[in-house]
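ok new one. same drill as before - structure tokens go in, u give me an amino acid for every spot. 334 of them this time. try not to just spam alanines like last time pls lmao
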């Protein structure tokens, strides 16, 4: 059956996944509120940040949300973590979807501490919960577009939805591993962005690979701490959704969160650094969410706290690192 898919969002990752689905023969309608972006995609059939990768023939673009939702067999979200609630409120105003919904954004909602699947359930209602799943893991869009080998993870509240995501997104080079721990899969994808910012700052200050290895390892420990209070399986953080995504986001020069951290280390303010990146920096948004959650649960997250102080309180990055180094070392707990 030639499935019809509605794709909400036309950022780099959204365009990448929409192209992947369309290349498999699915009829994909990608939606965005940004009319200039949609017009450019309609005319040039190519994303401005992914030159040389034309859209497959079965991928179309629209600013009409009704068109993106009408008679679809699958709905895929690819906006931003901050925009998920607003977008699904718009979706609900038109019609509550009866088809499976796949979330691909990575973040934790500020002030509520909800994972994105929890946000969508809150907006659409508990009766829609069984339709919701997610796709996460280490996946640089530029490499996926080139057909380079990538492995990601999918999850869902319902095993049938998880199996459907596995089937629809899998290709010979885009390997999808199912994992029923949806909270863990989402949490790993959200928190690794904060640690990537810290690694970017560290590299920008010239602290070397030893320091970055320590940040990644202790950052993973912080991710496991939060996993324990969000109803996740801490071991999920050791897989593709956690360690896998952490590695690629902290090490790749394509990573916007890592690049953002380097710019901060160079002395740029958050606004100017985001402007230079030219795309949403999810780690900045999620950092505040993580701090709010940590305070509520009385958790100590030194690296996350240091990133927060730099981004939201104006602390000098060198001073933040100094405070981390002054912490008393305790027995390593894994």
């Amino acid at each position: 059956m030639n499935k019809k898919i509605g794709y909400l969002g036309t950022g780099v990752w959204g365009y990448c996944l929409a192209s992947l689905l369309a290349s498999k023969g699915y009829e994909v309608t990608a939606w965005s509120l940004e009319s200039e972006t949609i017009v450019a995609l309609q005319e040039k059939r190519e994303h401005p940040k992914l030159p040389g990768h034309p859209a497959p023939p079965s991928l179309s673009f629209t600013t009409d949300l009704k068109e993106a939702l009408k008679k679809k067999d699958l709905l895929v979200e690819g906006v931003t973590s901050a925009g998920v609630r607003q977008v699904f409120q718009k979706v609900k105003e038109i019609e509550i979807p009866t088809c499976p919904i796949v979330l691909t954004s990575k973040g934790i909602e500020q002030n509520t501490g909800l994972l994105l699947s929890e946000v969508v359930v809150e907006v659409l209602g508990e009766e829609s919960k069984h339709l919701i799943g997610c796709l996460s893991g280490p996946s640089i869009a530029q490499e996926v577009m080139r057909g380079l080998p990538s492995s990601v993870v999918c999850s869902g509240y319902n095993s049938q939805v998880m199996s459907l995501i596995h089937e629809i997104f899998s290709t010979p080079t885009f390997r999808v591993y199912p994992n029923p721990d949806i909270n863990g899969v989402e949490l790993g994808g959200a928190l690794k962005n904060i640690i990537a910012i810290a690694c970017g700052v560290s590299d920008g200050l010239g602290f070397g690979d030893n320091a970055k290895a320590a940040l990644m390892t202790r950052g993973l420990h912080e991710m496991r701490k939060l996993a324990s209070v969000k109803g996740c399986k801490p071991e999920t953080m050791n897989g593709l959704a956690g360690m896998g995504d952490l590695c690629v986001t902290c090490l790749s020069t394509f990573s916007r969160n890592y690049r953002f951290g380097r710019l901060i280390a160079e002395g740029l303010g958050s606004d100017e650094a985001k402007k230079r990146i030219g795309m949403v920096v999810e780690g900045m948004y999620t950092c505040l969410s993580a701090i709010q959650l940590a305070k509520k649960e009385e958790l100590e997250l030194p690296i996350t706290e240091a990133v927060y102080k730099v981004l939201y309180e104006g602390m000098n990055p060198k001073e933040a690192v100094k405070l981390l180094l002054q912490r008393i070392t305790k027995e390593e707990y894994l």
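The two ends are 47 Å apart (CA to CA). and btw Residues 183-325 form a domain with the N-(1-d-carboxylethyl)-l-norvaline Dehydrogenase; domain 2 fold (CATH 1.10.1040.10).
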